[in-house]
Amino acid sequence: MGSIGPSRSNSDLSSQPRVLDWSYLFRQRLALDQHWAKGIAEVNTITGHADSVYCVQYDREKIVTGSRDRTIKIWDSQTFQCVRTMTGHEASVLCLKYDRTTMVTGSSDSTVIIWDLNTGIPLQRLLSHTAGVLDVAFNDECIVSCSKDCTIKVWDRSSGRLLRTLVGHRGPVNAVQLYGNRVVSASGDSLIKLWDLKTGELIRTFSGHTRGLACVQYDGKTIVSGSSDQLIKVWDAESGHCIQTLRGHKDLVRTLHFTGGRRAVSGSYDQTIKVWDIVSGECTLDIKDMHTSWVFDVQFSTSRIVSTSQDQKIIIWDFGKGLDISDID
């Protein structure tokens, strides 16, 4: 019998690079795009908070929410079961952000709490704001918080030391976004401001909304803002020019999510969620009759939208159901 050569172990096989079938992936991506365009999605609803759900962030493993009931809950992203409830704030949890190891939350109790995301243990409470903390953002070095007290504060992530306070808005600062060394803020004074994170210098003010702003997103080049004037505006961050206005909501645009590219998703006090092409200005999907009260927060990924509301519900739209998108999402 001729030799067939040395056999390869399972570890040898697993070390071989995967060969992707690009034609197959293209077909799956095309099907996913069609699901988004036609609103084809499996819908699941999570309940468990005892009051309004103000904020959400999620990934493949978990969904994290903050509520007026003063708790933060972590839900399994596949089974939708609550796996942890975290307490520490003395009033509504208005905002949260997390990365691989850390979560930062802000509350009506005027404090910011830094948590160990993996254990759920609060590590540090940041004290300086004199009114509710309305939004937070952070990177490897800094935490940025904004407040009803009209200020933005920059903290050292490691020590929790207050580095500087940014003053310039004449109304509550409702939202902040952090990208590189720049911070974008949106306020009830109807203005958007772009700041230098390191120096605290005001770089530019964006004026165009006619009423207070509730939300803002920033990817380093483009700013997307939502206001109680019922409009969403798209801005060139460098020139300060408004390059698109999105019309369709019939009440306050409370929440936006935008991570670059053409797609943005918004949620409104008109109880709808809308998907937009920010280049053409077209509303590509209008989701109605799901929430029964104000929409407070919305996030999206390649295949999902997750929203929260005053109606205490967390709703998940899965546009990838039935598709093989493991190499796409």
Protein model, in words:
The protein is mainly beta. The strands form 7 sheets. The protein has a 4-stranded antiparallel β-sheet, with no helix packed on it. The protein has a 4-stranded antiparallel β-sheet with strand order 2-3-4-5, with no helix packed on it. The termini are far apart. The N terminus is likely disordered.
Characteristic terms for this protein:
single chain, 329 residues, mainly beta, four-stranded antiparallel β-sheet, 2 helices, 7% helix, 50% strand, disordered N terminus
Quick take:
Helices cover 7% and strands 50% of the residues.
Write the layout of secondary structure elements.
Layout: H1 10-14, H2 22-38, E1 42-46, E2 53-58, E3 62-67, E4 71-76, E5 82-87, E6 93-98, E7 102-107, E8 111-116, E9 121-127, E10 133-138, E11 142-147, E12 151-156, E13 162-167, E14 173-179, E15 182-187, E16 191-196, E17 202-207, E18 213-218, E19 222-227, E20 231-236, E21 242-247, E22 253-258, E23 263-268, E24 273-277, E25 283-287, E26 295-300, E27 304-309, E28 314-318
Antiparallel strand pairs: 1-28, 2-3, 3-4, 4-5, 6-7, 7-8, 8-9, 10-11, 11-12, 12-13, 14-15, 15-16, 16-17, 18-19, 19-20, 20-21, 22-23, 23-24, 24-25, 26-27, 27-28
